[in-house]
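User: What would this chain look like folded?
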Amino acid sequence: MAETSCFHNLKEGGIPRQLAEGLSARVFPGEHLMLSVVEIQPDSVSPVHSHANEQWGVCLEGEWIRIQDGVEHPVKAGDFWQTPPHVPHGGRATDKRAVVLDIFSPPREEYKKAGSGYR
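Assistant: Here's the prediction, encoded as structure tokens.
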């Protein structure tokens, strides 16, 4: 692996993915985990879904409502959370933009190429 491919920036680059209307991601896959910088536009919705990957999330900017296992959790910049494999989760934006860093282990195979949706 070339040394330059090991260094990235939160504001640019990555594999583009449109998760849902108002939710866009830039994905950075590694061998054992994957980072995804998700931009959440005001009033958008992340449909509840689940997957076999463990997922951690960090709210980098703004605020939004994280829905996990049927419970709503208001989160703001600086908050982070763990989602075990197969736990239903999603969220909804407030009237403000938010940016979330998602971390997946193992990497989500379907996110290794540009596309849309959660699958």
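The radius of gyration is 14 Å. If you want, I can go into more detail on any region.
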